[in-house]
Design a protein that fits this description.
alpha+beta
C-alpha cells in the first residue's frame, strides 16, 4: 500500500492565513496541554498579567486558540 504524503506549500501564497480553529475558545486545561504547561501555570500567569491573552466568560477563563498560538510564537528566542 502506498502512503500519500501531504503537499507542502510551495510559496507564501499557498499557506493558509489562519487555521480553522483559530477563533475557537477553549478552557485552561485544553490550552495548557497545547502549550505544554500545567493549568496552574496559566492561573499564575493570569495573576501576574503574563501569558497568552485570556477572555473571561462569566467566571470562566477562556483562551482563543489563534491568540494562544500567536503568543507562543512570539516567545521564541533566537541566539546568535
Amino acid at each position: 500500500m502506498k502512503t500519500q504524503l501531504a503537499k507542502l506549500p510551495q510559496n507564501k501564497s499557498d499557506e493558509p492565513s489562519a487555521r480553522e480553529d483559530d477563533d475557537e475558545y477553549v478552557d485552561t486545561v485544553v490550552i495548557a496541554d497545547e502549550l505544554g504547561v500545567h493549568p496552574i501555570t496559566l492561573a499564575k500567569w493570569r495573576l501576574q498579567k503574563k501569558g497568552p491573552p485570556v477572555t473571561w466568560i462569566g467566571r470562566k477563563a477562556r483562551y482563543r486558540r489563534g491568540s494562544a498560538r500567536a503568543w507562543q510564537r512570539r516567545q521564541e528566542v533566537v541566539f546568535d
